[in-house]
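The authors assume throughout that readers already know how a fold can be written as discrete tokens. In essence, backbone conformation is discretised, so a fold becomes a row of integers matching the chain in length. A single example would do more here than another paragraph of explanation. For illustration, here is how one protein appears when written out as sequence plus structure tokens:

…
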Amino acid sequence: MTQEPGIYLVEDLRTRSMHGHDAQSEILFERDVKAEMRDGVTLMTNVFRPTGDGKYPAIICLAPYGKDSMPPDQQFLRIKNVGVLPFSELTGWETPDPAFWVPHGYAFVNIDCRGTNKSGGESFEHMSPQMAEDFYDCVEWVAAQEWCDGNVGSNGVSYLAASQWLGAATNPPSLKAIMPWEGFNDWYREHAFHGGIPDHGFFHEIWSRRMNSQTGFIARDAEPEKILELQKAHPLCDEFWEEKRVKLENITVPAYITAGWATQGLHTRGSIEGFTRIKSEEKWLEGHGRKEWETYYTRESLERQRRFFDCFLKGEDSGIRDLPRVRIEIRDRFYQGRVRNFDDWPIPGTHYQPLYLNPLDQRMDYTPTARVSSSKYSAIQTDRERDRIELTHVFSQKTDLAGSMKLKLWVQAEGSDDMDLHAALKKLDATGNEIHFLDFQHCEVGMVASGWLRASHRAQDEALSTESRPWHTHEREEKLSPGEIVAVEIEILPSATGFLAGEALQLIIQGHDILKGHSRFNHEPDSVNAGHHLIHCGGEYDSHLLIPILPGD
């Protein structure tokens, strides 16, 4: 069946799972509806709405991936372990499914970004002020359509969440609610670099493949932003990257925000930062340990999404305000977890407990040791000598950890004036076997949490740093002198994991990607590592991991 304009019966659409609505519902699909921006450039849209003359609230998304790429089956086939995705053939890449939303009384508008696909514009730039302005204009254009009642919301995954953060910060008058489902809002810290280390994996793979006018999404006569060259030209967080960072404090509309513990290095940090920093009086946070698209399209998730929009776009008493403001899955094993509800994030009552590194015994302990020691490993991957440190803490009682963590290290470079530090946390069962979790890009042998830092980027913004989360400025380099020992604090990205008595948390520190071969990260082509790294512990060197222990059930 082709996705041609016209009227569709829901019962005639190919779906993997019925959404439970009236199978006789009709969907009017209008393709290539023109939306004019304030500067005269036309963006092309696909409009899905109920038939008839009624007025309806609208849900929009703005993305570069192509509004006509329906369904995105071939793209999903390229990715391993995606999971079960119940959507109709009218669904675009990471977009809401019209076959769910239209029968429930919504219009849905899928919009191609300026400079992409069929939209006008001389250039395409990621997360630019121009994109923010276009989002504003698209909201107001939709609100003015004869079929819209003037109430507009936004919804979508990943880039479609990032564009929501960007556009909502401009405060379009008709934008009444947003639902950024796992999306970044700080290009430097959450996508192009990790702890100041340039990402040559996913960042390069996705934009080299898609930033091409012949095979990607760039419009025929438009110029793409040369983002890979710009990553190399701007290794520090300068004005170029700051212009792309969303001013989250400007956002005031109601927001339902979702963070995935399995999208660390791309979505997790931005989702949490968004919840904590926006000024919206009504906001919700959902954190889960499942796969992003699979979770987004489940009926359970759709019903929470609908309750949110029924309240803020239709004005109905949907019960959304009765839901806890923070809904977190505590992962116990692969696809096994428990939902715990809280009033806020960071979770009130969290106890931040330091685990002091004791490399002599390969342990992490609640009490520091007076013995000064150092642990040395090869800064580069090798089979000839040790190239990592592993330390373990065994829990004596049932413990839930949820939140950001901070790893403080006293470090020294031997043979280089800088260090790329990769840190990871794993869960071990009572017999010492690793318990795997989902990780970035649907990796099924993943870890509890990850963190990265280039030692020369250790300077922090004290106003933005918190007890459990350092905020690195990345504005300058502070190289290490021969023999110099310095303190660094590594941001371990947010997560939520449960441990029974006898189970253990393992810390790994090394100079290269820890999930190499299993994830799409690759930080090593520009590595500053050479020689050896030394980690100093004990006595005056209070190297430790700060863990967030939740109050009891």
Q: What stands out?
A: The first helix runs from residue 73 to 77. The chain has a mean pLDDT of 94. The longest strand covers residues 399-414. The CA atoms of residues 426 and 506 lie 5 Å apart.
